[in-house]
Design brief:
By secondary structure, this protein is mainly alpha-helical. The chain is about 55% helix and about 0% strand.
């Protein structure tokens, strides 16, 4: 059944304001909630942050106060939406338990987007960073078991494997090599446009989370791991953000953001298994539809063009779902692309690079000796205490060098 968000009846934007008791909703039960419910909450929290960040930047680059007022009205409601989503997180869920959710989201979301992506370049961009977030899940899961005796495979409900990906030590690239080619929204498939917007917001949310909570972790080793992986998340935000169409006007960009939010809330409402949380998605979809219609009205008023100039095919594509089994897909990507890095805007085998390439010189400058690299040290600590690492695998790691459970391989993607 097709769904055209521009054809839906909407209420005035200001009708969405809620009181404090409505915003402070009951948190989910961390031990009973479906992991995918948690992933949707993290995803939509990040989507709301991106919408607010964009709105503030728009306002700071706009000289028309009447337009600024309209943007401020939408932004205030979206701030309330974000506060409600944030309230769903229970106080007894530790920073590290929440981190497992962030990394599971990164793996499952990226795999879902890549599997439906039609543009080979964008699909490769998704697959490339997928292996890095997959490795982060492994590193944080070992720290979680070592520090708190909490089994991360229970948190992910054994829907996502926990095993090494592209080792984090090999992910530190020179900034020039994280820049990607931008999509042209006039030519790109609607799925590609949505994928670029969704993954950028999601990775940005992870980057912000680590930037703000990493220094609160109670151990020095943990602080160092958050610091290192937070730097990779910065790379990922550059990596994905570069996919966004650079030719959009501010108002067209506002319409793009609101369309993406509507699509995601629509998807969440269709996909959600928790009736209480599904109701939240439905309410927020109704609110976002009013934002979308307001953005279309502003585009017509200030740029004299209608929404069809931005979305000539406005009906939503197939909803995004977390119901797929991505384990075989991730294993295949791991087996076939683990030894790749990026060079300029493209992807190459690390073995094809000359020994004096900036990839090696920058990586060595950042990492120094492998024993000093936090993502390696946390596995070493676990191995010293337990003899073999913590994993959840359906079968051995498809990369032979990463299958050993008594040694953390730091050379598979760096040579030596």
């Amino acid at each position: 059944m097709s769904f055209d968000p521009f054809k839906q009846k909407v209420k005035p934007v200001c009708d969405a304001f809620e009181c404090w008791s409505d915003l402070l909703v009951k948190p989910y039960d961390k031990d009973a909630a479906d992991p995918y419910t948690k992933l949707r909450i993290i995803l939509m929290n990040g989507t709301e942050f991106e919408a607010n960040w964009y709105s503030h930047q728009f306002s700071r680059h706009c000289s028309v106060n009447d337009l600024r007022r309209e943007i401020a009205l939408i932004r205030r409601v979206e701030q309330q939406q974000q506060k409600k989503l944030s309230a769903l997180k229970p106080v007894n869920e530790s920073v590290l338990e929440t981190t497992i959710g962030y990394e599971q989201l990164a793996v499952e979301l990226t795999a879902n987007l890549a599997r439906r992506e039609k543009d080979p370049y964008v699909r490769m961009t998704l697959d490339f960073a997928l292996l890095e977030d997959f490795d982060h899940l492994y590193r944080f899961s070992n720290m979680l078991m070592h520090d708190m005796n909490v089994d991360a495979s229970r948190l992910v409900a054994k829907r996502t494997e926990i095993t090494p990906g592209r080792p984090t030590i090999a992910e530190h690239r020179y900034p020039y090599d994280d820049v990607r080619r931008a999509c042209d929204n006039k030519k790109a498939d609607p799925i590609t446009r949505l994928n670029a917007a969704i993954i950028t917001a999601a990775e940005q949310q992870t980057m912000n989370f680590y930037m703000n909570v990493g220094n609160t972790y109670p151990t020095e080793e943990g602080k160092k791991l958050f610091l290192e992986i937070a730097m990779i998340e910065e790379q990922h935000v550059t990596h994905y953000g570069c996919l966004m169409d650079t030719s959009c006007t501010w108002l067209a960009g506002l319409l793009e953001h609101e369309y993406t939010e509507c699509y995601l809330y629509y998807s969440c409402a269709r996909d959600e298994t928790d009736p209480r949380v599904r109701k939240i998605w439905e309410i927020m979809l109704e609110q976002e539809l009013s934002h979308l219609h307001k953005a279309a009205e502003l585009l017509e008023k200030y740029e004299k063009r209608d929404y069809l100039s931005v979305f000539p095919e406005p009906e939503f594509p197939e909803p995004l779902s977390f119901g797929k089994d991505n384990i075989p897909y991730v294993r295949d990507v791991l087996k076939n692309t683990v030894r790749m890095t990026s060079k300029g805007e493209d992807y190459v085998e690390i073995a094809s690079l000359p020994k004096d390439d900036v990839f090696f010189t920058h990586n060595k400058k950042v990492n120094g000796k492998s024993c000093c690299v936090p993502s390696h040290a946390v596995i070493d600590s676990y191995l010293c205490a337990h003899g073999e690492d913590f994993r959840f695998e359906t079968e051995p790691n498809p990369v032979p060098e990463l299958a050993c459970r008594t040694r953390d391989n730091t050379t598979v993607c760096l040579g030596g």
